[in-house]
Design brief:
By secondary structure, this protein is an alpha/beta fold. It has a single domain, classed as Metal-dependent hydrolases (TIM Barrel, Alpha-Beta Barrel). The chain contains twelve helices and eight strands. A five-stranded parallel beta sheet has the order 1-2-3-4-5. Helix 2 packs across helix 4. The protein is globular. Bound molecules: zinc ion (ZN). Zinc ion binds next to loops.
Length: 365
């Protein structure tokens, strides 16, 4: 069953990769000496690991036709989006006792409405990518609600959930947060059981909002499951000192496990100050690539998540400009393509390794 379920997503990822990998005009799409894109070069496709559109529509009253904000449909088109992850964001303050699993169901319905309203989006779990349309993937951000019954996560994985973070800004019964009250624990016992379950069922834990201790606990479980450690929307702490960013040691774990860190475009997470420029974004990319490696950096913009954009970036439509800036700085077209889509597609297509007859679990790492 598991192997069979893996095929559609992996198929979509490989199909998209094949689509992207070969420039249509058969020659290098950038000038080797200057790194500048040649005239007529199609923009590099984006697969974004974190776009908070469901929050805007569900909680902020935005029209599901997505005609405004930093990532409207027209902006996604202009940005050459080929895929994005819609998070079910469960606010810590949804109710007095935090978010409930029913809230996740309600936001899931909103995501389905957004997808149904805009033809550009392919439905969740679509078997193949389609040129000109945007593949959609599902995540949960702030999964503490599932402490009430961790088996309920199975329903969401069956509906396409690829990534789940066990907390958001505050600590939960599952884990301690990067921005929560200081505590001695990372994952709780229940949190460990939750993460085991998520990997067993073929989805991934998102470490972006976790404390460093929770990160370590997740990494230990991920390694046992041969799973990549993924931070969907976090930068390098060595460049911008925020607990929401990743230490160099954490970026190395991401590299070793085949995971990715998604470049977050919130100015304070980019530069460490209130403002940022495209140059600051490039500094982040340079450092993340230096420590984690070119195969382990992706885009996790955090557009529509109430972020402050760097100067020169107006939203989704500006991503081709960022790609150009990276190529002008000497990064190859192929490397930019990895960061902008291929690395994200690899982790979105992850499934647990097969268990062969006579074995009870995958071989040890
Ligand atoms: Zn977030």
């Amino acid at each position: 069953m598991k192997a069979k379920a893996a095929r559609p997503l992996l198929g979509a990822a490989l199909f998209a990769g094949a689509l992207l990998g070969t420039p249509a005009h058969g020659r290098a799409p950038y000038d080797a000496s200057t790194g500048a894109p040649r005239a007529g070069t199609p923009p590099i496709m984006v697969v974004d690991l974190h776009v908070d559109l469901p929050w805007q529509v569900h909680y902020k009253g935005r029209d599901a036709r997505l005609t405004e904000g930093h990532a409207p449909v027209e902006g996604l088109k202009a940005g050459a989006y080929g895929g994005l992850v819609f998070p079910i964001y469960l606010p810590d303050k949804a109710h007095k006792d935090g978010a409930h699993i029913e809230d996740a169901d309600a936001i899931f319905a909103t995501i389905e409405k957004i997808i149904a309203t805009n033809k550009i989006f392919l439905p969740l779990l679509s078997p193949q990518a389609e040129p000109g349309r945007i593949s959609t993937f599902l995540a949960i951000e702030g999964g503490g609600a599932f402490a009430a019954d961790i088996t309920q996560i199975d329903r969401f994985i069956a509906r396409g959930l690829r990534l789940v973070s066990p907390n958001h800004s505050a600590n939960t019964l599952l884990s301690s947060s990067a921005t929560g009250k200081k505590v001695k624990f990372g994952l709780t016992e229940l949190g460990k059981a939750f993460c085991e379950r998520v990997y067993d069922k073929g989805a991934l834990i998102d470490v972006s909002h976790l404390s460093d201790r929770s990160f370590d606990d997740v990494a230990e479980i991920a390694r046992r499951h041969h799973a990549p450690v993924v931070a969907t929307h976090s930068n390098a702490r060595a460049v911008a000192d925020s607990p929401r960013n990743l230490t160099d040691a954490e970026l190395e774990v991401i590299r070793e496990t085949g995971g990715v860190a998604g470049l977050n475009l919130h100015a304070p997470f980019v530069s460490g100050g209130q403002d940022a420029t495209i140059d600051d974004v490039i500094k982040q990319v340079d450092h993340m690539v230096k420590v984690a490696g070119i195969d382990h950096v992706a885009i996790g913009s955090d557009f529509e998540g109430g972020i402050t954009l760097p100067q020169g970036i107006d939203g989704a439509a500006s991503l081709p400009k960022l790609a150009d800036a990276l190529m002008r700085r000497g990064m190859s077209y192929d490397d930019v393509l990895k960061i902008f889509s291929l690395n994200a597609l690899r982790v979105l297509g992850w499934r647990p390794p097969p268990v062969f007859p006579g074995q009870t679990s995958p071989p040890p790492p």
